[in-house]
Design brief:
Largest sheet: 2 strands, antiparallel
Structural class: mainly alpha
Radius of gyration: 19 Å
Number of strands: 2
Number of helices: 13
Distance between the termini: 33 Å
CATH superfamily of the largest domain: Farnesyl Diphosphate Synthase
Strand order of the largest sheet: 1-2
Order of helices and strands: EEHHHHHHHHHHHHH
CATH architecture of the largest domain: Orthogonal Bundle
CATH topology of the largest domain: Farnesyl Diphosphate Synthase
Number of domains: 2
Length: 296
């Protein structure tokens, strides 16, 4: 999850709350800036507040990891502070972690998925390159999979849904990496495109500064899209396995949106422009996801 702060970095002058500096460095991005619905009206009303709390927690941790104004050691300190508050430390310096702790108490869920995403953001603070696809998927195990697992656990779904959910979340993560590959490199010197794939295609990370993708870099993008499309095919087994109707519908919508974004990235160039979903993609995915008959 790589959101870049816009405008004057909010961490340049720390906000003070109750006498202590806030560790969070919000970028200003919210649920409306995401490619995919987050706790939409399809989700049960009583659970939406908990979905939003998890999103806010992950969003704030992600913003810390992606802040170009913070040194790696400071990022780790801030993320560790969020973890401590999540586990019960007193303090008002991480409102998102405090709200997440309250949510966990209210729902009876453990903090494991929260700690997993924090592990991924700690990695973002210190790791700038990924060796191969397996290395990237190991990162997605902590950066992406916990998001789907948290939603499933909130709804009391079977853990048998986890493999398909993990595949969907990993696909969404890689699609986001492809959308932002140039910005991540230029702003943070962070490259999620596996080095093994770059080398095999005769491409280098410096190609990410070009105004358009070279033929060699296009090979890398298409290779990653092929693997991502395999993940999306696995993810199609998720909606039929979800008992909660609203979550089943939302997961079907997201699978459809992922497939549409993958197709747009096949045709588009993320170096030339940010390839994104069009309103008609969203409308079509919602209709298809909601009207589709569940397979059992």
């Amino acid at each position: 999850m790589t959101a870049l702060a816009a405008g004057t970095p909010p961490d340049a002058v720390p906000e003070i709350v109750s006498g202590s500096a806030v560790v969070e460095t919000p970028s200003g991005k919210g649920r409306g800036d995401e490619n995919f619905p987050v706790g939409s009206w399809l989700i049960r009303r009583d659970l939406r507040v908990h979905v939003h709390a998890f999103y806010r927690f992950a969003r704030n941790a992600d913003d810390i990891a992606d802040s170009p104004m913070l040194a790696a050691a400071d990022k780790l300190r801030r993320l560790d502070r969020m973890a401590a508050i999540l586990d019960g430390d007193c303090g008002t310096d991480s409102p998102a972690a405090s709200a997440m702790r309250d949510s966990l108490i209210a729902t009876g869920l453990t903090a494991q998925h929260c700690h997993d995403v924090l592990q991924a953001f700690r990695q973002d603070a210190t790791k700038l390159r990924y060796r191969d696809w397996d290395d990237l998927m190991e990162y997605c195990r902590y950066s992406a999979a916990p998001v789907g697992r948290q939603l499933l656990d909130l709804h009391g779904e079977s853990r048998a849904t986890w493999p398909a959910s993990d595949a969907l979340c990993a696909a969404l993560q890689v699609l986001n990496h492809l959308q932002d590959c140039a910005a991540d490199y230029q702003a943070l010197d962070r490259v999620y495109l596996p080095l093994a794939d770059l080398e095999a295609a005769g491409a280098g990370v410096e190609m990410l500064t070009a105004p358009a993708a070279s033929p060699a870099l296009r090979v890398v993008l298409d290779t990653l899209l092929e693997r991502t499309e395999t993940l999306i095919r696995i993810a199609r087994d998720l909606p039929p396995g979800v008992a909660a109707r609203g979550l089943r519908w939302e997961s079907a919508v997201i699978v459809g949106l992922a497939a549409r974004l993958a197709r747009r990235l096949r045709r588009g160039d993320p170096l030339a422009t940010r390839v994104k979903l069009a309103p008609r993609d969203v409308a079509a995915a919602f209709l298809t996801g909601i009207l589709a008959r569940p397979r059992r």
